[in-house]
User: Which sequence fits this backbone?
């Protein structure tokens, strides 16, 4: 048995290089710090990468979810179907536009919202489905889109884990009506904090562009350029969610590296799969033949000991882990406000009780991967 490593191995870390540093310095030197040419460049390149008409840079995925719901006119009296097995942002934004979150259970095959359970939750008030591509493994979009079409529902992708993921040969980000990406520090690509909304709908993009900057008329930031004008019109009571050029300076380089990052994530995931295959009491993360998995997360299910005990043992060996996610229907706000209770979503609760995400990111070395494999074997033997 290898000795415990001296240095703590964090659960997640971004991978930044000289390119990002130089671009940030150049952007600082340019004097243009807020939303401007770099943001525009990053948006164009991101849209091209995903294969959509429009990409709008925002301060976070949370902001992208918020403006997506508003752009589709979702508000008071409306119901939105979504998984409980997600980060707080997904449901919080539904609540913050005045709509009601209706949690639907997940499927064992992908930990994403289960299309077979969706229809029974649809009422006359249902307006939208938010799909979370959990861990970067795409949900069953064909079935979900078919249901949405049948019932005239909007499909919003929470693609926080899925930058670079593909479903049936198409990049995630253009499969629903809009998609929301996160560039938070530990996501597949990072700008520190940041987000992007993608869509093929020019009206949605126009609404989001205006509402990220106080609801003032298009390209309001151009008023500081020579050909700009000091005049503007406030069309909406909007927000202040605009991505700024220092973020975009990091983003343009992270995007160029994204495919290499995902290759590394897949390479490490295969090493884990091979090493853990057949380990008793451990269930490997799901995968699909018709999808490219970003492996934002590598969530294993531990059945031979309490999950929390496994986490403690990993911590003793200086390995950080995390749990994605504490189901939202078990959180006090959602229980108090909407009456959700333990027992409401059996698959979500069963999986939550066993699940733990072990480190998987391109900054990790082969030695880190080997150490984690050895540690998991030791702990579960
Ligand atoms: C990280 C995350 C978000 C929020 O992203 P931010 O950019 O931090 O707002 C939303 N949904 C899911 C599933 C996430 O993991």
Assistant:
């Amino acid at each position: 048995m290898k000795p415990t490593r001296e240095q703590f191995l964090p659960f997640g870390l971004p991978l930044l290089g000289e390119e990002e540093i130089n671009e940030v310095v150049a952007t600082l030197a340019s004097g243009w710090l807020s939303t401007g040419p770099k943001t525009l460049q990053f948006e164009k390149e991101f849209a091209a990468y995903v294969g959509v008409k429009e990409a709008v840079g925002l301060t976070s995925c949370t902001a992208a979810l918020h403006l997506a719901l508003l752009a589709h006119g979702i508000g008071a009296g409306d119901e939105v179907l979504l998984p409980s097995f997600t980060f707080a942002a997904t449901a919080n934004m539904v609540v913050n536009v005045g709509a009601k979150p209706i949690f639907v259970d997940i499927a064992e095959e992908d930990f994403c919202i289960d299309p077979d359970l969706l229809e029974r939750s649809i009422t006359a008030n249902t307006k939208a489905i938010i799909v979370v591509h959990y861990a970067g493994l795409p949900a069953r979009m064909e079935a979900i889109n078919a249901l949405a079409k049948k019932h005239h529902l909007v499909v919003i992708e929470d693609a926080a884990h899925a930058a670079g993921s593909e479903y049936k040969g198409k990049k995630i980000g253009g499969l629903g009506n809009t998609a929301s990406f996160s560039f938070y520090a530990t996501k597949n690509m990072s700008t520190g904090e940041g987000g992007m909304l993608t869509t093929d709908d020019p009206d949605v993009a126009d609404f989001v562009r205006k509402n990220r900057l106080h609801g003032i008329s298009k390209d309001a930031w151009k008023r500081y350029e020579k050909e700009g004008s000091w005049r503007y019109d406030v069309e909406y009571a909007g927000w202040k969610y605009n991505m700024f050029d220092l973020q975009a300076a990091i983003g343009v380089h992270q995007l160029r590296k994204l495919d290499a990052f995902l290759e590394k994530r897949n390479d490490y995931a295969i090493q884990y799969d091979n090493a853990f295959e057949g380990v008793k009491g451990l269930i490997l993360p799901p995968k699909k033949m018709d999808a490219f998995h970003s492996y934002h997360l590598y969530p294993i299910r531990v059945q031979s000991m309490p999950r929390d005990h496994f986490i403690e043992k990993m911590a003793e060996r200086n390995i950080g882990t995390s749990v994605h996610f504490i189901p939202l229907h078990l959180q006090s706000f959602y229980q108090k406000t909407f009456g959700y209770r333990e027992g409401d979503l059996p698959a979500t609760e069963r999986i939550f009780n066993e699940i733990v995400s072990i480190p998987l990111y391109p900054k990790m070395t082969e030695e880190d991967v080997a150490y984690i494999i050895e540690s998991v074997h030791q702990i579960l033997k």
Remarks:
- The mean pLDDT is 96.
